[in-house]
Request: fold
Amino acid sequence: MVPRTRHFTHDGHRFVFDEYGSGDRPVVLLPGLLLSRKMHGPLAETLAERGYRVLCLDPLGHGDSDRPTEMWNYSMTIFGAQALALMDHLELDRAVVGGTSLGANAALEAAALDQDRLQGMLIEMPVLDNALLACAVVFTPLLVGLTFGAPLARMAGRAASLVPQRGPLLVQLALDAIRQEPKPSASVLQGLFFGRVAPPPLERAALEPPALIIGHGRDPIHPFSDSDMLMNDLPNATLLEASSILELRIAPDRLTAEITSFIDGCWERPKQRLARRRTPRPARPDGSHARGGGRRPA
Reply:
């Protein structure tokens, strides 16, 4: 399915988004840090085939949207407001809003700004308190490299621009990020370092839209403990553990089925509060279950 690429203006900046499908049940998807809207293309196609109108947005500083160089243009709260601005542009009263990593936190911020407009929240790999040290360790060198190593970053970008626009999606996403001018990317990181990461616990506890939280282990930047914390903070949440950070990208069938079922429920039962539950991972060969869902081995 070939999406319709469109754009709109908000706060004096140009934003680009892809539109899949049509209808009166919109879903807004936001990408991970410094990645483009293309990362949600496969999921958007699947949801569009089920009758949803899926909108994949490049927030400011990402993909093909404007990339101002001043750090004050970037924060999680601002990214959340941009999701609502897309809804305003399309005159959408309500939508399911979600994303991955940065996109997940931005969806929480959109709910904190105006939760009455969110039919549900799809939260993959949220970044909360337990991830902050790992994020500092990983992203501080990246920030330093983009700032003081800008000439080398530009050389890498020019080299990446010579690579054909085809191949695996993950490779194309990485090449798209490398091709970007380094200064705006550094400003995105600076803005996030000096702003709040997500709505604090008291605000999260007041967010009523149903939420599907997808977490996984073995990733210090998106620790499962943060997903578990968020599940306990939100009053209307389901927690699903992925087998790895790549499951939704390389073997998506199980998670895609859970996501589509959740979004179906958001639109079919708009006024019914979903019961808080955990979704267990499939049993291991020895019959035990992974952490975060179901029963533990005795």
